[in-house]
Amino acid sequence: MSEDSNSAILDPIEDDGRRASIGSLGGSIGSSIGSLGEIEIAPLTPLTPLTPLTPQQNVPRQTGSLATHSDDHAITRIKNMKMIELGKYRIKPWYFSPYPQEITSLDCIYICEFCLKYRKSRKCLERHLHKCPFKHPPGNEIYRKGSVSFFELDGRKNKLYAQNLCLLAKLFLDHKTLYYDTDPFLFYVMTECDMRGYHIVGYFSKEKESSEDYNVACILTLPPYQRKGYGKLLIEFSYELSKFEGKTGSPEKPLSDLGLLSYRSYWKQTILEILIALKPQEGQEKPQLTINEICEQTSIKKEDVISTLTNLELINYYRGQYILTLNKELVDSHRKIMEKRKVRIDSKYLHWTPKDWAKRGKW
Ligand SMILES: [Zn+2]
């Protein structure tokens, strides 16, 4: 293994004779890997019902639009809508969403793809479209490359849009509580542009202030756009924002099954990209880097970096050092996958300055 030119040494490492510890990384990697290996990342449960909470109800932690919900009523889990029409797509909802009852009994509801207001018939929607001034989401367009744009909007300033977005998202996300209070959140809406306007593809929300370093609260690619690489683009964008903030971040837990798969694959690809590009420094036989350096370059939180390396079974302990060994198969399959990932976020096109919400008092 030591002869493998694709191996990298995790540095700094000391062998204390019993269990090697990574001094400057804080704690021993041996023990952290042990415990991380057991971490159960539960299914990503984005939103839960918009039913107004009565005072005697137990109000869960205010994660704004989406929090885990412990005391589900069976009713909140039953899919209540047959069909929605959004732009050129007719989509079958997957889960319950608290749209008004008089709407949910209809065969189809018609949603304006630009402002996300809903109407009970196509005729009503057509009337709305004549008046609707929007051809894109509200807020600021902070990124545009090719046909892909991102709009940033404030859940307080664009409350109605944010609430309608949460209602729409809830149709495809299970296990989360959806609140009317969107104030503590920013929303990043990804669109694809054509002659008719900027069409919503997906979004993620983000707490203005997160005490737990979450850089995504809820994330969704709308079904017509799934399995086309857009989910990864959303994730990549969320980490790009964290890089601009000079922070590491992680998505709010629990993740949905689909969300967890996307994140795992994003982490794997991003970390492998760095490891494969790594060159040994002068006078060194093998490239060296610390886990912290991976975190700094990617803005991926340390736990997620370690769990990714562990899941990939790349870490070996050899002569008192932790060594990452990349075999040819892994490198080849990574290259093939990356060739398919043609659309990437390009930080040159991001026009954005992070705000320090903590200093602003009330958002
Ligand atoms: Zn509209």
Automatic annotation (TrEMBL):
Gene, per the UniProt record: Tip60_1
Enzyme class (EC, first level): transferase
Record-linked Pfam families: MOZ_SAS, zf-MYST
Protein localization: Nucleus
Entry keyword set: Acetylation, Acyltransferase, Metal-binding, Nucleus, Transcription, Transcription regulation, Transferase, Zinc, Zinc-finger
Species annotation: Portunus trituberculatus (Swimming crab)
Major subcellular site: nucleus
Superkingdom to which the source organism belongs: Eukaryota
Organism lineage: Eukaryota, Metazoa, Ecdysozoa, Arthropoda, Crustacea
Record protein name field: histone acetyltransferase
Residue ranges, compositional bias (Polar residues): 56-68
GO cellular component labels: NuA4 histone acetyltransferase complex; nucleus; polytene chromosome interband
Family: Belongs to the MYST (SAS/MOZ) family.
The EC number(s) this enzyme carries: 2.3.1.48
Gene3D superfamilies in alphabetical order: 3.40.630.30, N-acetyl transferase-like (3.30.60.60), Winged helix-like DNA-binding domain superfamily/Winged helix DNA-binding domain (1.10.10.10)
